[in-house]
Structures are given as structure tokens and as C-alpha cells.
Model the fold of this input.
Amino acid sequence: RLYLQPMSETNQGPSAGMSPDPHHVARRIADECIGQRTRQLGRLVSRIYDDALRPHGVTNAQVGMLTAIEMVGPVRPTILGRIVGAEKSTVSRNVRGLVDRGWVQVRDDAEERGKLLELTPEGRGLLVLIFPAWEQAQGKAVALVGPRASETLSGYLREVQTP
Done:
């Protein structure tokens, strides 16, 4: 189980007119930085999912894209990037791998110029195949952060995400 130390409510900055001590600054950042802590937690959690999914030849990031494509149906790559929170180059690289493996197909968008991504029957089958491994990883991830933190995180992400 992962425990995160709460941020200090006192000592929010150097005293007026005093130059901060570099060691103090480094300690505060190391102890309190939400950016660093979420990156560290993200790596720990991603490792759990990637380890569980590895036998199926897929990563957690790829499963995220496959899931998003299945949920919204045929989707333009730019929209997929917004959904999964990935840069254009990351989407392009990951989609190329999904297409190469036969899990995603690219077709022309009849309504607009551009391309649409959709899962192939093999991609849909992969989601079903990896589901038990995903459930196992999900259980380990919830055990790591605790059920309450997991629920809080899910609720927070629902609030801040924009489709």
C-alpha cells in the first residue's frame, strides 16, 4: 500500500526578504511536489499493468487507446489524442503499432478529409482476451493506493477530463 505524506500547511515559502536555502527548497519539492508524486505513482501503477499485459504483447498505453477507440467508435486520430491525453506524435507512433499488429484499421472519413480509426475483430478479441489480466492488475493497483484513494482519483478525473 502506498502512503503519500500530506503537504505542509505551514512553511509555504521563504520568509520575506530572505533567500531560500537550496537544501530546504529541494526537500520541499521532494516532499510536496504533486507533479513529481503523480509521475512516480503513475510509473508504479503503469508497471503493474504492463507486467500483467506483457504476455499478451500489449502495453497499458496501447490498451488505453484500444479501449478509447472501442468506446467512441470510429474516431479521428486527433480526437483519440484528446481522449487519451497524448501528443500527436505519441498517438501516431502507438496507432502505427496497433495497425501493424492488426488490432486497428485506418479508413477514409467519408464526411470529412482525414482518416478514422476503428478496431478490427482481432482488436476487439484482444480486449476480451486481456480482460482477466487487466482485472488482476486492477486489483493490484487498487491494493497499492487503497480503495478510498482509487475512488477519489476516479472521481477527480471524471471532473477534470473533457471529452
User: Anything to note?
Assistant: The longest strand covers residues 104-108. The chain has seven helices and two strands. The beta strands are 104-108, 115-119. The longest helix spans residues 121-145.
